[in-house]
Amino acid sequence: MSAVRPRSLFVLCLVEFWERTAGVLCAALLVLFLTEARGLTPSAATALSGSFLALTYFTPLIGGFFADRAIGPRVATQLGALICVGGYAALALFPAASPWWGLGLIALGQGCFRPGITSSLARLYVPNPELRDHGYSLFYLSVNVGGALGPLLGSAVKRLYGWSSVFVLASSLMMLSVVSTLWLPASERTTARSAPTGNAYSPTAELKTALPYLAIFVVYMSVYAQTSGALLLFARDHVQRSILGHAVAVESLAAFPSAFVLTATPLVSAVIHRLRRQHREPATVIKIIAGLLVTAAAFVVLSVVSRHVRADQKVAFIWLGLSLALMSTGELLVVPMMQSLVGQLAPKSAFTTAFLFVAMSAGYTCGGWVGTLYERLSAVGFWGVCTGMAGMAVVGMMRLRKSGDDSKNVDRTASSARW
Q1: Where are the beta strands (DSSP E) in 280-385?
Q2: Range of the domain at 326
Q3: CB contact at 8 A, 132 and 344
Q4: Considering only CA atoms, which of 20, 125, 114 is closest in space to residue 76?
Q5: Could you give the number of structural domains in the chain?
Q6: Does residue 419 form part of some domain?
Q7: Do 174 and 69 sit in the same domain of this protein?
């Protein structure tokens, strides 16, 4: 088979784009909806929203299990999207009912959708593994485009037509996601949910292989979570937020990573494509290590410039911009490449790929605990802790890479001995 990019990649990117547009639209406006339309107190709305988001990261374990055992990844994707349609519709059409009816359906739908589509993506590249990393980068781009567009559409529709219209829009977007799955080529609709034979397929073995990498991903997400937490507090209190005489709102900085990813993805893809043509493309693990090193460098910048913080002196905005650019570059290398690596290690197990979302949830949770140190330590000390954690992730990935290389050498030696 020639190494051509599978047509289904673009269909899956479109399916994911519709879902992320609807999902981030709901997540971004949920607290406002619960307080303004449902009359919840801010604390109750925040607690409910947090519980809902946490649930969406754990339900993929259930969906992944059934995708592996019964329905297959494509049907899981379609079923999850349809359940989400019902969840968003319930929020729009039944204002007197508990919001948990709609939110529960959405969480269950995402639990089927997420492992289904990520497993489908992993299976596309079993014949052409050399294209896997680029495919995951394009897929991650569709995630960010949908994530950036969703809140803008939701806020505009809410201003024009009210809260019910926001969830009607989300439900309509999910219907487009369902319809988009019908564009999969006939030869790829029945992707590889074949019955296990012998020891050719073992979900337990795949999960065992992937777990060390997922543990490192948790550490990475713990420090990356500071971009929406401690880093904003640092920017508010210690950064001169002015560009060409115009003040930059702290809230707008939260959108910088996604905007940078959207801008930088084509450039990074072009560089990797050029290296691939020259047969010099680095391995997936090397890309992850590079992303972790860049992330550590971002925290080094913050730690160094924090030494100059005084009560009457603030850090120049350019240093904050540099650290955010480095973190976003690290994200672009780590997150899609970690997804690609897990897809490589577990190409047939939707259940194993579901642990990516569990790792994200655990990482954000640990990131919240790490963020509590911001008030207890000096800025220099706090960013030093983050640097150390990123460094630990680098060392862990390097050790896993070395052990992987050693295993391959042992396998090659054993194979030669048999021959």
Answers
A1: 315-316
A2: 203-411
A3: yes
A4: 114
A5: 2
A6: no
A7: yes
Cβ within 8 Å of residue 88, ≥6 positions away: 22, 26, 102, 106, 167, 168, 170, 171, 174
User: Which conformational region is residue 279 in: left (phi greater than 0), alpha (psi within -120 to 50 degrees), or beta?
Assistant: left
Residue 179 tokens, joined: 């319809």
Q: Domain for residue 198, yes or no?
A: no
- In the chain (419 residues long), the average pLDDT of successive 10-residue segments reads 66 94 89 88 84 89 90 91 96 91 95 92 83 86 88 88 93 95 66 44 75 94 87 85 75 73 79 77 90 96 87 82 91 91 85 89 88 88 95 94 62 37
pTM: 0.81
400 falls within a domain:
yes
Q: What is d(CA 18, CA 226) in angstroms, rounded to the nearest whole number? A: 28
195 in a structural domain: no
* pLDDT, tens only, 140-169: 889 988 888 888 898 889 989 999 999 999
Q: Which residues pair with 316 in a beta bridge?
A: 240
- Rounded to a whole number of angstroms, the distance between the first and last alpha carbons of the chain is 28
Residues 338 and 221 occupy one common structural domain: yes
